[in-house]
Amino acid sequence: MFKKDWCFSLDEQIHEESAEEGGMFARSLSALRRGPARGVAGSRQIRLFHDEGTLAQGHRRRALEATAMARTHGDVVVHTVPALSDNYIFILEHQKRKQVAVIDPSESKPVVDRLEDLGLSLDCILNTHHHYDHTDGNLALKDRYDCKVFGFSGDSSRIPGITHHLSEGSEFHFGDELVEVLETPGHTTGHVSFYFPRSKIAFVGDTLFVMGCGRLFEGSPQQMHASLQKLATTLPADTTVYCAHEYTMSNAKFAITVDSGNQALADRFREIESLRSQKLKTVPTTMEAELKTNPFLRCGDGDLKRCIGMAGDAEEVEVFRRVRQLKDNF
Q: Mind listing the pLDDT tens digit for each residue in 156-180?
């Protein structure tokens, strides 16, 4: 178990591997020249890749898609990988140290595919909580890459393949960047979030969503409200926040019913509506945007209280409880 003032360095335990020039494209062409892979019929190989030009086009298309799903934050590139019906998996690439982490792999195949397209290996998995749609890829990825698995110490029996146990105040390094661990229970009792203060990015799993928050499957309203307040007070306004699901349109439709006088919310609703009509992603967000438009972070606002029929002096946790109940039945 990590101590508050104990620092684990991936540099000390993870062998760095540099991707060969050309990456997955070069390896695929090499395999094609050698002939069909073992156990694959030659005719099927020909139907799939009838010439190197077709293969090159496929990889260029996938490379363009991957580029569109990547953002750079200092030395860290975050590659967003859609998975299942509405999940996002995040691959983190430290450009200087050539280290790679994946956050909440709900399944392994899209992660392997993206890593191969990028010419990368995998050093560690970071899990925000134990739910299957955040951990089902753990064991296959661990077996393939012999990577470390980080998760909440109290969920060691529920996070597949866990090797490194985290708790509030734990710190470790990704490359040369410090990562801070925040316990954010509510969605589950063992939920954690990962904050990279130098790069100003945070990965909050199912605690905070764009204009929403996670359902309370195991935790209490008091726990979730406290967790959201922890994020609101710990993360600077210019922090880029990555959440694990594309729930934004539904969240926005609900938010305007409980905070109808919020002009910033009305403006953002139109932006989200435009993005989703084009099937574009709305993640990541920023703490600044959430503080202005997320009803679960605005439980002290008098207009929101009036909108849901609560007194101006109602305690924030009770306002949160009511807003969460309304969302559950929306």
A: 999 999 999 999 999 999 999 999 9
Q: Can 173 be counted among the known catalytic residues? A: no
**Catalytic annotation, pick one of 187, 191, 225, 259:** 187
Q: What is the pLDDT of residues 271-317, one digit of tens each?
A: 999 999 999 999 999 999 999 999 999 999 999 999 999 999 999 99
pLDDT of res. 63: 56
Element (H, E) at 44: helix 42-48
Is 206 assigned a catalytic role? Answer: yes
CA 106/CA 30 separation, integer angstroms: 31
For residues 202 and 34, is the Cβ–Cβ distance under 8 A? no
Sorted by where each begins, the domain ranges of the chain are 7-328
Q: Which of 94, 131, 164, 225 is catalytic?
A: 131
Residues 230, 182: contact at Cβ < 8 Å? yes
Catalytic hit among 130, 206, 225, 259 = 206
Q: Is 191 a catalytic residue?
A: no
Q: What is the pTM of this model?
A: 0.82
- Among residues 104, 133, 155, 259, the one annotated as catalytic is 133
* Superfamily name and number for 7-328: Ribonuclease Z/Hydroxyacylglutathione hydrolase-like (3.60.15.10)
Residue 130 catalytic?
no
Q: How far is CA 182 from CA 28, 169, 273, in A?
A: 41, 6, 32
Q: Measuring CA to CA, which residue among 289, 201, 307, 242 is closest to residue 104?
A: 242
267 is catalytic: no
Q: Which of 79, 117, 245, 259 is catalytic?
A: 245
